[in-house]
Amino acid sequence: MLLKIKQVNKEFDGKLLFENIEFEVKEGERLALFGRNGIGKTTLLQGLTGRLAFDGGEVQRLLPLEEWGWLDQQAQLDSSLTLLEFVQAGSAEWFELKQSMAALTKQMQEGESGEELLNRYSEQYERYVQLGGYEGEVKAEQCLKQLSFDPSLWGLPFAQLSGGQKTKAQLAALMVREPKLVLLDEPTNHLDAEALAWLEQWVQTYPGTVLYVSHDRMFINRTATSILELVAGGCRRYTGGYTEYKEQKELERRTQLAQYKKQELEREKLLDSIRMYAEWFQQAHKAAGQNDFLRSKSKKNVSRLHAKESALERLEQGKVHKPREDAELRMLLETDEFAASSLLRMDNVSFAYEGHPPLLSKLSLTIGRGDRLAVLGPNGVGKSTLLKLATGSLNPDEGKVVLHPQTTIGYFEQELSKLDLATTILDSLLALPNMTQSHARTILGCFLFSKEDVFKRIGDLSMGERCRVAFLKLYFGKANLLVLDEPTNYLDIGTREQVEEALLHYPGAVLLVTHDRYFIRQAANRLLVMEGRGKLNLFPGSYEEYSSKDRSCLLSPKQQIDQNEREMLELRLTQLMSSAQPEEPSEQKALMADILRLRQQISQMQAKNNGR
């Protein structure tokens, strides 16, 4: 046992965040801390490490804090440290000695001398060797190489690194020290597919114990031995990863619902019996008059009445409540009627930022109706740039981007810079034509903004709340092409699943960039794989198929267009075959002719593809 938590609670600004938190952490576990945004997961981690005081309860640290390590969402440190120094500073004792020895060396180089100076240096050197400082320096460099940090970056100030690089640097610092208990707060944020795969392997094989917070469902599935669900009134442990957690939650819900229904039937029967015995007693008592025998007989009904009332009281004391559905995002994305099959086309598009090598070279791409195209590739390969070219935010250096005249784009950018931070959530809706306060409040309720929340300034919202405001703009835009750049970065899992559901039923096309592999698997039916230096491939299937198939299935742009056309024909064929049979013989004949023609076209296209 490494950690015991008993009856922990915490308030913020007079509002209860969580209470009655009890759990244990045992050696070797990979425990995922799970819960909605704002429930206090980061606060709980900070309290466990002693950086924040709980309002009540007890934290028993059976492992000294010196043997803990943690990764924060936002790394706070001296910005003067370089990347290499930051990784070395993870092992504070020998790193401080290293700095002190460097200062003494500088003093001696500048002409200072004396026995005391030499003795201090000698003592520190011996201690540095005992602590394994030189081995630590080598290990720090090895860890940076493992995480794909080019040596040219090692001297950069930590503050100048990107979000993903800062996360990897914190991981490297933990790798050097190898603490027995590691706490990770959103370690998957900003990491590309290669870094995520490495992190999964690291967590799976780490010799110590790991407690982490993550909204990445695939990461949880592949690494967690247990999930600890945090709610306002306590927490509960579930064995396994996210898939097992969902199955256990559904079983709990069904069991509770069955118990609730059984209890309600029993309650109705007891109430009927109570009414019946009360009525019998009244009638018998009235009929008995002064007859002692009949009066005594009527009292039997009173005893039975009291027994049933006692049974009802016991039932109410052990009452099983009806399963309560958590408040969740309710969003239906709609689009105006659109007849054309192609919404956007890129022809031989090339692009480079000034002074940098090309990100895109001779890119040709078509996005048609029904496409759910996810863009994959490592950080810095140009995924967001591709989306900006598609929306017209950037112009290509060569080639052209062609939109169908009826195409309307809804753009979600990960920086959320298009939001008016000075206005309130409610006023942002009331600015729309014909919008009433009543209708605006109803819509905002569907997006989890209720009561006084609607009067908050957008600039005062959390990033997760700002994401929901950005989705509001998409909701009212009725675009037929959604261009989404990291739309789920700040959303909890429940809200991500509602966004996935909305995209599944969205009748338009989607061009998507996200690091959430589970989200890609649920929402995408096409993949655009960017490998850097302008190299690009199209894959005609889901993320699951891409992960398991031979990559020779990648399509050229021309093959992608043919694939889109064939699927549109198959959709039309399905619609014709499922339509009501016309009564007129001439109409029946025309329907059969259309079906035969479509089948023939599909067969010809399949033969053409097989020939390739």
Describe the structure.
By secondary structure, this protein is α/β, with parallel strands linked by helices. Among the domains are: 79-179, no CATH class; 248-317; 342-555, Rossmann fold; 571-611. Helix content is 47%, strand content 19%. It is built from 19 helices and 18 strands. A 6-stranded mixed β-sheet has the order 5-6-7-3-8-9, sandwiched between helices. α18 runs antiparallel to α19 (585-611). It is flat. The mean pLDDT is 83.
Show unreliable segments: none
Shape: flat
- The CATH architecture category of the domain at 342-555 equals 3-Layer(aba) Sandwich
Average pLDDT works out at: 83
The N- to C-terminal Cα distance equals 61 Å
Strand content: 15-25%
Query: What is the CATH H-level superfamily of the domain at 342-555?
Result: P-loop containing nucleotide triphosphate hydrolases
Radius of gyration: 32 Å
**Structural category:** alpha/beta
Biggest sheet features: 6 strands, mixed
Examine the coordinates and then state which fold CATH places here, giving the name of the CATH topology of the domain at 342-555. Rossmann fold
Total E-strand runs: 18
Jot down its keywords:
single chain; 612 residues; alpha/beta; Rossmann fold; 6-stranded mixed sheet
Draw up the topology in text.
Elements: E1 3-12, E2 15-25, E3 30-34, H1 41-48, E4 56-61, E5 68-71, H2 83-89, H3 92-109, H4 115-130, H5 133-146, H6 163-177, E6 181-185, H7 193-205, E7 209-213, H8 217-223, E8 226-231, E9 234-239, H9 242-288, H10 292-317, E10 342-351, E11 360-368, E12 372-376, H11 383-391, E13 398-403, E14 409-412, H12 425-430, H13 437-446, H14 463-477, E15 481-485, H15 493-504, E16 509-513, H16 517-523, E17 526-532, E18 535-539, H17 543-548, H18 557-578, H19 585-611
Parallel strand pairs: 3-7, 3-8, 5-6, 6-7, 12-16, 12-17, 14-15, 15-16
Antiparallel strand pairs: 1-2, 1-4, 8-9, 10-11, 10-13, 17-18
Helix pairs in contact: 2-6, 3-4, 5-6, 9-10, 18-19
